[in-house]
Amino acid sequence: MKSSKILAASLVGVTALSLAACSGTSAGGGTFRAANTTMIVPFAAGGGSDVSGRTVAQGLEAATGVNITAENREGGNGAVGYSYFLGRQGDGNTLLAAETSLLTLPIAQDVEFDHTSFTPIMKLGDDYTLMVVRDDSPYTTCDQVVEAAKSERVVAAVSGSVSLDEVVFSMVEQDQGVEFDRVPYESGGEVVAGLLGEQVDIASLNPSEVVGQLESGDMRALCAFSEERYEYEELADIPTATEQGIDVAFAQFRGFIAPGGIPDDATTFWIDAAEEFAGSAEYQAYIEDNYMQPNIAYGDEFADYLGTASTELEAVFEQ
């Protein structure tokens, strides 16, 4: 989580892709011709997935010269968008802004896809969460929250049954042998409102969702569910959960995928475009503006990450 990782990411893979894109063929010399492309966002406009999808679409468009339009297909905690995308099998001109629901939906719901149904292109980075409370909360650390949950009711906000905050709270419960009550919300924005409105006691939110409230003093961060402390100045003083005796660190990945069954040269084309994007100022700004960690993976390496993370999540949801 060093700032040097961001610099390194910004230097990754600058290629001669733009020349190949102008000719309409992949950098690998194949016959795939990129045409007007759609970036499916399986969540509503305005959220983290929407920001990610539109940022990637703009970055890929700049790298390739191909017109890429973001299209929101929300519903079912992402299931509607992913199911629509499943129907685009073999279409190299459709992409999807993916995140952890790609892994949690097949585990927790009856859907017709899993991560192996699609073609992984690029993992942009990792988006960890913070446990936050109102400024007037009696809790000052995450281990105090855990201790309270052993003898009293502690109410947690969650934004869906397969959301990252549900995953993180479940992992804390399993690690510490406690149980939180839940109040479900539709989005991170509603979670923030519910916490400030005293409907819940705790929430687990991405830094970009709450940094304004932390800076204003309306909320306090008790710990970060990350492997190391953040080096971003605004977050550097927040201890990790592990430092407080809670062995939980889990991030929501952000990335993009292509449909299953696309030609090999289409896969090569989009991976080359992703590498070009990773070397841009736009990518670096996206990572820094959203307080993410630039842990990039492409193609097969991204697929390996998805397999490992899916196994870890299966253990969480089986409890």
TrEMBL record:
Swiss-Prot/TrEMBL keywords: Signal
UniProt xrefs under Gene3D superfamilies: Bordetella uptake gene, domain 1, Periplasmic binding protein-like II
Domain of life from the UniProt record: Bacteria
CDD domains: PBP2_Bug_TTT (cd07012)
This protein's record includes keyword Isomerase: no
InterPro entries, A to Z: BUG, Bug_dom1
Protein name (record): Tripartite tricarboxylate transporter substrate binding protein
Signal peptide positions (record): 1-20
Pfam family of the protein (one): TctC
Family the UniProt entry places it in: Belongs to the UPF0065 (bug) family.
